[in-house]
Amino acid sequence: MLRIFFKSNYMNIIQSIIIGIVEGVTEFLPISSTAHMRVVENLLGINNKDKFSAVFTVAIQFGAILSVVVLFWKKFFIQRKWNFYFKLAIAVMPALIFGKLFSERIDSILEKPLIIAIIMIAGGVIFLFIESMFKEHTIHSEENISVSTSFKIGLFQCLAIVFPGLSRSAATIIGGMSLKLTRAAAAEFSFFLAVPTMAAATLYSIFLKNWNIDDAGHAIDNNKITGYQLITQSAENTTSFIIGNLIAFIVALFVIKYFIQFLQKHGFKIWGYYRIFVGLLLILLIYKGYIIA
Asked: Among the four residues 49, 126, 156, 261, which has the most C-beta atoms within 10 Å?
């Protein structure tokens, strides 16, 4: 019913608001924003062939990025510890290199709803046992994280590129805890690392990536179409982009603010159960024909 009501050949403002809420809630939680986006887009009847919709689902991260910068503005702008910036630069390098070389090829092969659902469930199982798997915690804050540890966490972030549905935050939190970070320290560093990672992905999708491509990721012709052109193609596209990012920003502010507090009290098991539930729900929707596998 929801799909019939919203179905259209382009994204409208109501759809952008709903996706903005989904992005704000899921981007920094270890539950995969990719999986939630796919479910919501299908339920809203958004045409997955629409290029603006494809740009929007990447570029809407801009609002989420700003929420991290605002909440941790002292860390980014007042304290100005160059070691902090250097660690982030080192940590983001693997994802930038790996993403540039392989992400589009991997997406065309692996970013299918059924594969995302399976990875959602697998990640959920890991979170059910993560506390018992990594019991030793000697790193309690970002200041205690070494450059080499930052780089290793950055390598873990690449798993989110290889396995769509794992989630960037889940990969970095799992990586952090395996390297002896506490729950809170792993989550906080995941937030920090999100800023350069998502900023790079957003800027690339808007200004550099050619969206005039087929389903296999090959250029259709010699006419390059950038995300910026698609966003400014119509007043509705521009309005949807602005409103979606604003909603994502506001929602993410609340999610980030309370996530670490929640982790310290309740741990990761609830996210494990949730991931398994969503993965099974996604498989059910595929089986019933609501989502094309």
From this structure: 156
What's the CA gap between 265 and 285, in Å, rounded? 33
**Long-range Cβ contacts of 259-265 (<8 Å, 24+ apart):** 259/28, 259/29, 259/187, 260/184, 260/187, 260/188, 263/183, 263/184, 263/187, 264/183, 264/184
Cα-based distances in Å from 119 to 32, 41, 171: 10, 19, 12
Asked whether 257 and 68 are in contact (CB, 8 A), the reply is no
HSE-CB at 5 with a 13 A cutoff on CA atoms is 6
Within 13 Å of residue 44, how many CA atoms lie on the same side as its CB? 22
DSSP symbol at 217: S
Secondary structure (3-state) at 115 = helix
Over residues 194-220, the mean pLDDT reads 85
23 close to 63: Cβ distance less than 8 angstroms = yes
Predicted model pTM: 0.89
